[in-house]
TrEMBL record:
Keyword annotations: ATP-binding, Cytoplasm, Magnesium, Metal-binding, Nucleotide-binding, tRNA processing
Chain intervals with Low complexity compositional bias: 16-31
Biological role stated in the UniProt entry: Required for the formation of a threonylcarbamoyl group on adenosine at position 37 (t(6)A37) in tRNAs that read codons beginning with adenine. Is involved in the transfer of the threonylcarbamoyl moiety of threonylcarbamoyl-AMP (TC-AMP) to the N6 group of A37, together with TsaD and TsaB. TsaE seems to play an indirect role in the t(6)A biosynthesis pathway, possibly in regulating the core enzymatic function of TsaD.
Database matches in InterPro entries: P-loop_NTPase, T6A_TsaE
Record-linked Pfam families: TsaE (PF02367)
Family of the protein in this entry: Belongs to the TsaE family.
Taxonomic placement: Bacteria, Bacillati, Actinomycetota, Actinomycetes, Kitasatosporales
Name of this chain's protein: tRNA threonylcarbamoyladenosine biosynthesis protein TsaE
Organism: Streptomyces neyagawaensis
Record's subcellular location: Cytoplasm
Amino acid sequence: MEAPAARYVPGEPGGVPSSSSASSASSPVASPASSVTSFEAVVQSPEQMLELGRRLAKLLRPGDLVMLNGELGAGKTTLTRGLGEGLGVRGAVTSPTFVIARVHPSLGEGPPLVHVDAYRLGGGLDEMEDLDLDVSLPDSVIVVEWGEGKVEELTDDRLHVVIHRAVGDTTDEVRQVTVTGLGERWASVELGVLSA
Ligand SMILES: Nc1ncnc2c1ncn2[C@@H]1O[C@H](COP(=O)(O)OP(=O)(O)OP(=O)(O)O)[C@@H](O)[C@H]1O
Ligand SMILES: [Mg+2]
């Protein structure tokens, strides 16, 4: 009933830095230890952002860390709401601005979603561990807004999502989304399924 959530733009010129290329063949100096896969999409509306989140949820496993970056109002929480729907967790995913982290338990057998707003997380990871969340992080899917430079120590295996308002955008709802998988965990994951 809905239009496809996200248009896949493989290797759009100027879109992805060459180091983010999904193909290591074009990059003979690429280190196997730092394999990178990436996906780009143009997301036209909040509903498409939710749908991208639902699709992303299908790829996630307990222990995964997803970092969401992008300016205020880019759509990080909207994407997380779709993730929460896809994971089938309890409670509405809303902006956690007034709490640092919120735990959404699974309604089924899946992992809980831990939604973190690191904006006010001055002390980085230590502070997050001190939050004493009533959940085991390795058993959860952790989604962090504004986590750049703060939570990378958690794991080398990370999914980075960057949301930008598209350059030259005339309508306010168009977003450019880049999803990049870092580390062993994501090395063989086909992110192209996000466009399905
Ligand atoms: N394509 C789009 N994707 C996501 N949100 C969109 C889009 N177009 C418009 N919006 C609107 O932009 C706003 C995004 O808000 P959201 O809370 O998701 O952003 P955020 O990146 O989490 O912001 P913050 O940095 O304050 O946490 C919502 O009001 C949403 O309806
Ligand atoms: Mg937000």
